[in-house]
Amino acid sequence: MAEMAGQQGRLAGRRLAFLATDGVEEVEYTEPRAAAERAGAQVELISIKAGSVQAVQHDLDKSQMYLVDRVVTQADPGSYDALVLPGGVVNPDRLRMNWDAVNFVRTFVEARKTIAAICHGPWTLAEADAVRDRTMTSYPSLRTDLRNAGARWVDEPVCVDGGLVTSRRPADLPVFCTTMVEQIAQTERIAAY
Amino acid sequence: MAEMAGQQGRLAGRRLAFLATDGVEEVEYTEPRAAAERAGAQVELISIKAGSVQAVQHDLDKSQMYLVDRVVTQADPGSYDALVLPGGVVNPDRLRMNWDAVNFVRTFVEARKTIAAICHGPWTLAEADAVRDRTMTSYPSLRTDLRNAGARWVDEPVCVDGGLVTSRRPADLPVFCTTMVEQIAQTERIAAY
């Protein structure tokens, strides 16, 4: 809580895109979103479909639905300061097959904006060929896929390489959230839209 | 049905291992198992846990539970003629983190036995480094992971490369099942246990 209190206002005026779809692991969406909003950021849930997305707990137990703020085809990546990729095994498995979603991610990579990805979230980065020569972590099931995609995979609660913040699983959320906020706060704020 | 009738008895005396855990896509387990049993094979569901596994439909909708015949640590890969890897996104995501499961798969690869994998099933083969220089297909979300692991990925209802039979999704099950049975029938039967 001390860290969270210390981050109040750190992201004032920042806009963050959370990209997710059905199968998103609930706490990996809700906790980083809450941390970003507590820090003053404006957050939007971007998805590959309109309406709402089905969150899950432990990959297989359906939880609540969450309203989508904007469909990816209607989202301008240039209007966000950073991108957050929650996990849940089904979520990135669907995102990575959607060209608009992968292209949305690639735009953040090319602009060297902060990207924070947790658990299975990094699969979408692998699809965008965005992990080559990056030091990063993930849920351990992705380790081989990420190494094969050119990443240096490490087993740490949080890993920061340039603007890429990665964590392994829900248990890492406290340090993931504070590190994500700090990394975004340190970058130059984009022109206001 | 003509093909199925023509396969009666084709696998008499053969023993097949189906390796799966929670999150297995139901029809990708039940239909190949039924096809193998119609052809006269003895089939065992091998898993990384005792008891039963939770099957799903369309990755996220829980369906029935299926009894596990044998835990992988108690299974001798030398006693099976072939290995079948059903999909369902959560299933291989869990199998590939289990050393005993990956080692079980690797033993079939090294013995050059028939391996039939559908949908997300091939992830476990990528974990075992068993797709290098193989021509294969899978659910399209795995395409990049399999290419990065050294495979030549093709978009076909069924692909046969040596003893490796792969298909993309439930819609491919009819041709997957008949091809799997034919491939196993053409191999030399292992010594009876």
Blueprint (SSEs and pairs):
The structure is a homodimer of 193-residue chains.
Chain A: H1 2-6, E1 15-19, E2 24-25, H2 26-38, E3 42-47, E4 52-57, E5 61-67, E6 70-71, E7 82-85, H3 90-95, H4 99-110, E8 114-118, H5 122-127, E9 135-136, H6 143-148, E10 152-153, E11 158-161, E12 164-167, H7 173-186
Parallel strand pairs in A: 1-3, 1-7, 2-4, 3-6, 7-8, 8-12, 9-10
Antiparallel strand pairs in A: 4-5, 11-12
Description:
Two copies of one chain form a homodimer. Chain A is of the alpha/beta class. Chain A has a single domain (2-183), classed as Rossmann fold (3-Layer(aba) Sandwich). Chain A contains seven helices and twelve strands. The first copy, chain A, has helices spanning 2-6, 26-38, 90-95, 99-110, 122-127, 143-148, 173-186, and strands at 15-19, 24-25, 42-47, 52-57, 61-67, 70-71, 82-85, 114-118, 135-136, 152-153, 158-161, 164-167. In chain A, the strands form three sheets. Chain A has a seven-stranded mixed β-sheet, sandwiched between helices. In chain A, α6 links the parallel β9 and β10. The longest helix of chain A has 14 residues, at 173-186. The first copy, chain A, starts with a helix and ends in a 7-residue tail after the last helix. Chain A binds chain B through residues 22-23, 54, 56, 59-60, 62, 89-90, 93-94, 96-97, 120, 123, 126-127, 140-141, 144-145, 148-150, and chain B through 22-23, 54, 56, 59-60, 62, 89-90, 93-94, 96-97, 120, 126-127, 140-141, 144-145, 148-150.
